[in-house]
Amino acid sequence: MSSDEDFDPHVLAEDAFIEEVQSFEFWFGAVEGYLSGQEYGHNPETPDPPLDETQRDRLITTLCNYCVGETAALEGASGLVSVAPNHPAKIFMATQVVDEARHLEVFLRRLNDLGISDTAAEIERRANPALVDFKDALLKLVAAGDWDAAVFAQNVILETMEFTVFRSHAQTADPVTAEILEGVISDERRHFGFGENDLGRRLADDPAGRARLRVVRSELDSMVLGVFEGALADLEVPASDRHALGRDYLETVERLGLTQ
Questions:
Q1: How far apart are CA 16 and CA 12, in angstroms?
Q2: Which of 24-33, 162-171, 176-185 comes out lowest in average pLDDT?
Q3: What is the DSSP string of the chain?
Q4: Does the residue 191 lie in any domain?
Q5: pLDDT confidence tier of residue 3, bands split at 50, 70 and 90
Q6: Domain at 146, CATH number
Q7: Which residues fall within 8 angstroms of residue 39, CB to CB, at 6 or more apart?
Q8: Which of 48, 60, 75, 260 has a 20 to 30 A CA-CA distance from 120?
Q9: Where does the pLDDT of residue 250 fall: very low under 50, low under 70, confident under 90, or very high at 90 and above?
Q10: What is the maximal distance between C-alpha atoms in the chain?
């Protein structure tokens, strides 16, 4: 990446732009600003006031489900490195592997801070079944080498849901959790931006590809709804506000031409 701080990659031709923004150099510049000086995703000086038992229990459940989602994205991104259609996409997926591993690590560490020593058992006990089903469906697409469908499931559906839920949660979370979420949100924005841009280019002149992904979407929709409703219920988001929070996903699907 150019050393000029005022460099604008948007002035590049399309192929050069893609190579630039999907590079490790671009990734490093993006994350350095909000990870420098952090320990497990937050400033060690950030106050961490005690939670009452109800707040603690609800946060543990929420973090356990975040760990399921991040594990799905970690395993999905690592598998997609080998099936990515070009070098820039392979490199971007490698940066996403690093991001997802960090997200999983900071959420696990937060569970430790809340007194959970056996995080694997706690996650298994509290995981939303719809999210577990979605993870299994995503990893089947990855194992099949289905780049378009897997990127749609992972970088459009999962990443957009996580971005929306994390952003909502950060507004009401305790100071440490909120700070962790802000860094994760910055990564999720980059991940779903990649998914929408990659699929948008690939599907622009491919009506058959769009038709196939509409079928994939219809197969995933019930799981998506269960995941989204469960996450927002855990965060005590009023039912009247949930449709508005799902707008990011619906608008992305519409832009890709994947509405039913």
A1: 6
A2: 24-33
A3: --S-TT--GGGS-HHHHHHHHTSHHHHHHHHHHHHTT-BTTB-TTS--PPPPHHHHHHHHHHHHHHHHHHHHHHHHHHHHTTT-SSHHHHHHHHHHHHHHHHHHHHHHHHHHHTT-S-HHHHHHHH--HHHHHHHHHHHHHHHTT-HHHHHIIIIIIIHHHHHHHHHHHHTTS-HHHHHHHHHHHHHHHHHHHHHHHHHHHHHTT-HHHHHHHHHHHHHHHHHHHHHHHHHHHHTT--HHHHHHHTHHHHHHHHHTT---
A4: yes
A5: very low
A6: 1.10.620.20
A7: none
A8: 48
A9: confident
A10: 55
Is position 9 within any domain? no
Over residues 138-166, the mean pLDDT reads 97
In a domain, 246, yes or no: yes
What are the C-alpha distances in Å from 150 to residues 27, 110, 113, 132, 138?
A: 22, 29, 34, 16, 6
**Res. 106: pLDDT tops 50:** yes
Determine, yes or no, domain membership for 13: no
- Torsion, CA 16, CA 22, CA 26, CA 30, rounded to 10: 140
* pTM of the shown model: 0.91
Q: Which two three-digit tokens encode residue 138?
A: 């995503």
Domains in the chain, number? 1
- The pLDDT tens digits of the residues spanning 58-102 come to 999 999 999 999 999 999 999 999 999 999 999 999 999 999 999
| Residue 220 exposed, middle or buried by CB count within 10 Å (0-12, 13-18, 19+) | buried
- The boundaries of the domain holding residue 73 are 50-255
| Residue 260, pLDDT score | 66
**Rg of the chain's alpha carbons, rounded to an integer?**
18
